[in-house]
């Protein structure tokens, strides 16, 4: 079964997890089909209307963005927010693998007050203190606004930056809420342009790069690239310490890209692709293909290199022609090709994978092997049964956790992370581990800091 890990690295499978179900074809009478369809439409728009009608977007205009508000007035919460459906849950029992861990429950949706004071009251009390090591987040999103707001809350610090890229196909209410969130908080952005993303990764490279560009005006040292249902496992304070330990190295998953997947279609000429920075000697180099998760953590130097020194447009355009995993090639390939990517990695170690910390996924070939009993595109939807592992994991985020499947798990891991943000002594981060993952060691080796002689040991 482990083999599957090699074959599939779909990170882009995030999008439209119900997609498969729609593909089932049945033979029904035309009238039944039409009647059902009409009924569904009625329900859909009815529900949309009811929800949006109750959402309170009252009396605010765009000018709100420039309004100065006093952060202190929102206070500082000492415990994580508990939604009504979670009142009976005791999270402290969920992280002990020896105990019986109860099955989780879904999140129930409620109308939301969306005027700025309400939005800020939900986010600001849970903020983390600034660490002097600001972090940016870029996330491609299409559903579950309340989850996204909650995740933002968990990572929120005034020094941080957040950018969302919205799928064009997302519901109007979702888009309105997200745009309002960005209006109410000065360090939150939503890309104006909405493109059609899908679970094969199309257009995701573009939107993440666009988000990074948009956030360049703010100060940050690392940017974390995430998808809709990635759930944070580390607090802002912990992330700052982890990224400090990476010391400029980017965390990008690097695995082999099969001949079938990459090579036949694609141009590898660095010069033709405009991937050789002006003052470098790499013009005769060829790209070395690799693939990995879209999720990654890039140092600011790496982002400046991509945005200001390379012109990745034509590579991004050609990758968009791939049928699947269109978002899995760009960063791993740039990181290992000989174009001077700062804090990158090497093709010499392939096919051995590097240690990758940004995202944890549980790959399985059978839903019975998932703690939640739910499997999507060979990745388990994580649930309460995974909490003992997630509580100890070195990863920064878990993919994927869904509020419709098991919100209890999301609530409890978030509570744990929040607790750690308030009490540093409870943190389990070992900087020494992060300072010695493959890519970080490789960059130390390149800089000749270690006494490693001869070749780098993969
Ligand atoms: C971090 O990187 C800098 C510059 O690349 C280097 O001078 C320094 O020694 C590195 N620190 C560690 C702990 O490797
Ligand atoms: C999944 O695992 C169960 C129990 O091990 C087995 O009965 C079932 O046939 C498996 N399904 C598939 C599709 O492999
Ligand atoms: C977090 O802290 C609160 C209050 O100190 C405690 O009740 C709760 O059990 C803690 N949660 C976890 C997951 O440890
Ligand atoms: C590296 O070499 C220097 C000088 O030879 C030595 O003093 C130092 O202890 C060595 N460091 C390690 C980590 O081996």
Automatic annotation (TrEMBL):
Residue stretches spanning the membrane: 28-47
Record flagged with keyword Ribosomal protein: no
Location in the cell: Membrane
Gene Ontology MF annotations: glycosyltransferase activity
Keywords: Glycoprotein, Glycosyltransferase, Membrane, Transferase, Transmembrane, Transmembrane helix
Signal peptide start and end residues: none
Any one Pfam family match given in the protein's UniProt record, by short name: Branch
The keyword Zinc appears for this protein: no
Cellular-component GO terms for this entry: membrane
Topology in the lipid bilayer: Single-pass type II membrane protein
Domain of life: Eukaryota
Protein name: Uncharacterized protein
Protein source organism: Pristionchus mayeri
Lineage: Eukaryota, Metazoa, Ecdysozoa, Nematoda, Chromadorea
């Amino acid at each position: 079964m482990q083999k599957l890990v090699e074959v599939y690295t779909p990170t882009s499978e995030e999008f439209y997890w119900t997609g498969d179900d729609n593909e089932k074809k049945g033979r029904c009478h035309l009238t039944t089909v039409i009647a059902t369809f009409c009924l569904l439409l009625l329900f859909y728009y009815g529900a949309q209307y009811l929800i949006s009608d109750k959402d309170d977007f009252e009396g605010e205009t765009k000018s709100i963005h420039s309004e100065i508000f006093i952060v202190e007035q929102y206070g500082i919460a000492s415990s994580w927010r508990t939604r009504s459906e979670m009142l009976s849950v005791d999270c402290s029992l969920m992280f002990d693998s020896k105990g019986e861990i109860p099955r989780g429950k879904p999140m129930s949706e409620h109308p939301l007050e969306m005027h700025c004071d309400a939005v800020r009251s939900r986010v600001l009390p849970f903020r983390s203190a600034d660490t002097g090591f600001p972090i940016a987040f870029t996330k491609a999103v299409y559903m579950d606004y309340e989850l996204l707001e909650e995740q933002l809350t968990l990572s929120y610090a005034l020094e941080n930056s957040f950018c969302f890229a919205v799928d064009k196909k997302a519901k109007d209410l979702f888009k309105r809420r997200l745009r309002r969130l960005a209006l109410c908080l000065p360090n939150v952005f939503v890309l104006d342009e909405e493109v059609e993303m899908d679970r094969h990764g199309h257009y995701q490279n573009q939107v993440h790069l666009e988000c990074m560009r948009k956030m360049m005006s703010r100060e940050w040292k690392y940017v974390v690239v995430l998808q809709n249902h990635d759930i944070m496992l580390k607090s802002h304070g912990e992330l700052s310490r982890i990224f400090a330990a990476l010391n400029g190295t980017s965390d990008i998953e690097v695995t082999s890209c099969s001949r079938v997947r990459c090579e036949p279609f694609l141009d590898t000429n660095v010069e033709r692709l405009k991937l050789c920075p002006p003052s470098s000697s790499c013009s005769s180099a060829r790209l070395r293909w690799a693939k990995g998760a879209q999720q990654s953590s890039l140092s600011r130097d790496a982002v400046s290199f991509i945005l200001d020194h390379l012109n990745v447009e034509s590579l991004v355009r050609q990758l968009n022609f791939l049928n699947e995993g269109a978002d899995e090639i760009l960063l791993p390939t740039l990181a290992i090709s000989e174009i001077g990517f700062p804090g990158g990695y090497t093709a010499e170690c392939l096919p051995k994978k590097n240690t990758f910390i940004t995202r944890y996924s549980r790959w399985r070939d059978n839903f019975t092997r998932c703690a939640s009993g739910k499997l999507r595109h060979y990745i388990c939807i994580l649930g309460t049964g995974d909490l003992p592992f997630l509580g100890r994991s070195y990863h920064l985020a878990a993919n994927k956790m869904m509020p419709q499947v098991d919100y209890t798990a999301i609530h409890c891991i978030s509570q744990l992370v929040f607790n750690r943000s308030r009490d540093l002594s409870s943190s389990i981060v070992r900087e020494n581990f992060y300072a010695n993952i493959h890519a970080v060691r490789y960059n130390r080796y390149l800089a000749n800091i270690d006494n490693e002689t001869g070749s780098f040991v993969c």
